Structure to design on (342 residues):
């Protein structure tokens, strides 16, 4: 067992002796013997001398010489001056509990890394979340007329386009006093009267049910019913009489027979209308073209007050192909939107 070279105590764990605090591995300190300190000699109290006032000095009188300091009597050895007391450093009593580092504060160092920039990940995550919300808002803010579902559950697509003004004033960009109507927007085709030049006779469907193709079915709100006529029907007119005069601002049509039954889609099996012309009471008209899609395709028009709307069929597709192809022109629904006339 190692012992301290300074005090001889057994050495433990650490860099210092736990008994005297001497650093381990260093030589023993040199012991310096100090000479004995003589007690200080107390000088005798001098006899007090009464103060005297200084003599008046004139120019002819010299100042008295000061009396010499008392010295040792003749024939005696002078006393030696007392030696100055050696300065002793105040020795601090060593306490191992205060002067030594605890072993655990040196050996057991926490090596867990400090993540000083963890806030960066929170900021990035918040920005990504905001971006996702913006994208979702733009997606759900799309026009509902682009894609919709009809009451029968069939997927339909709608097309809305600005009207092509044909009056000279509108074509030149001159502002016109267009009516606005009163009240809320209404579906004016509901309750309207439909008149056509010809109607195809009823037929029996694949389930054995009798199916009619009356003109009134263009305003019943059900795209699975339709008005149908034989052949191309180009040049024929559909006259719609509104329940009362109104300000029309939007028109539209399902330009074919949009019925699906028993796995058969009758839209491509009949002729589809490719373009029509809408004419109003004041003589203004607007042309609408259609895509071959079995949904409501709408067109915004300059507001016009009218009691009747005449639809002229301008162009249609060829008959349906295949065994189920039919040489009929069909219209499933007509839409006329506006407000009551003021």
């Amino acid at each position: 067992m190692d012992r301290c070279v300074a005090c001889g105590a057994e050495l433990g764990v650490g860099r210092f002796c736990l008994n005297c605090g001497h650093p381990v591995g260093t030589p023993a300190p040199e012991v310096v013997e100090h000479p004995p300190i003589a007690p200080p000699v107390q000088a005798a109290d001098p006899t007090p001398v009464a103060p005297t006032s200084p003599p008046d000095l004139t120019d002819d009188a010299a100042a008295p010489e000061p009396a010499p300091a008392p010295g040792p009597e003749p024939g005696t050895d002078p006393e030696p001056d007392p030696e100055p007391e050696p300065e002793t450093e105040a020795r601090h009593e060593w306490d191992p509990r205060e002067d030594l580092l605890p072993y655990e504060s040196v050996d057991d160092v926490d090596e867990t890394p400090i993540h000083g920039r963890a806030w960066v990940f929170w900021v990035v995550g918040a920005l990504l979340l905001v971006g996702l919300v913006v994208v979702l808002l733009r997606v759900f803010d799309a026009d509902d007329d682009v894609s919709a579902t009809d009451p029968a559950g069939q997927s339909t697509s709608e097309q809305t386009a600005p009207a092509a003004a044909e009056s000279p004033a509108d074509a030149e960009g001159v502002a016109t006093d267009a009516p606005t109507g009163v009240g809320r927007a209404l579906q004016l085709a509901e309750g309207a009267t439909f008149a056509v030049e010809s109607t195809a006779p009823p037929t029996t469907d694949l389930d054995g049910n009798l199916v009619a193709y009356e003109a009134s079915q263009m305003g019943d709100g059900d795209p699975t019913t339709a008005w149908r006529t034989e052949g191309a029907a180009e040049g024929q007119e559909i006259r719609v009489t509104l329940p009362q005069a109104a300000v029309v601002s939007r028109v539209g049509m399902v330009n074919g027979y949009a019925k699906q039954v028993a796995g058969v889609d009758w839209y491509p099996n009949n002729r589809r209308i490719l373009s029509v012309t809408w004419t109003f009471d004041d003589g203004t008209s607007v042309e609408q073209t259609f895509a071959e899609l079995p949904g409501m395709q709408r067109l915004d028009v300059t507001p016009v007050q009218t009691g009747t709307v005449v639809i002229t069929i301008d162009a249609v597709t060829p008959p349906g192909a295949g065994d189920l192809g039919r040489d009929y022109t069909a219209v499933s629904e007509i839409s006329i939107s506006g407000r009551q006339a003021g």
